[in-house]
Amino acid sequence: MSKRSKILELLGQEDLTTKEIHDKTGYDMALIWQYIHQFKDEGKIEKIGNKGRFNIYRAIEKEPQKQANLDTQILKKMIPKFIEYGINLDTTTEIEDKRLEVLIETCL
């Protein structure tokens, strides 16, 4: 895993200062700052506060990614049912029904 990926992964797991990232990884502070600025410019992290003289950062999970993960979970659950029983929405939840309708419409 690259240093850049490791830092972003850490920020996805918990809110951290640059000092805390340094303490967890041993990476050079200048390198950490470089990646922090890149991540901010790319919209991947946000500053959420301060701890002493250090800013606290957190990774931003994009909504489309959350929706894609939900779609994947629904499809993994539904495809075996479709294969075995055909399309039967009686065995799905309301949220799954609505998302499934959208997914089916976009495929047609």
Describe the largest sheet.
3 strands, antiparallel
Strand order of the largest sheet: 1-3-2
Q: Architecture of the largest domain, CATH level 2?
A: Orthogonal Bundle
The total count of strands amounts to: 3
Structural domain tally: 2
Based on secondary structure, the structural category is alpha+beta
Listing every helix as H and every strand as E from the N terminus to the C terminus, the arrangement reads HEHHEEHH
Distance between the termini: 39 Å
CATH domain class of the largest domain: Mainly Alpha
Question: Can you put this structure into words, describing what you see?
Answer:
This protein is of the alpha+beta class and 108 residues long. It folds into two domains: 3-59, Arc Repressor Mutant, subunit A; 63-107. Helix content is 64%, strand content 14%. The protein has five helices and three strands; from the N terminus they run αβααββαα. The chain has a three-stranded antiparallel β-sheet. A hairpin with a 2-residue loop joins strand 2 and strand 3 (54-59). The chain starts with a helix and ends with a helix. 10% of the residues are buried. The mean pLDDT is 81.
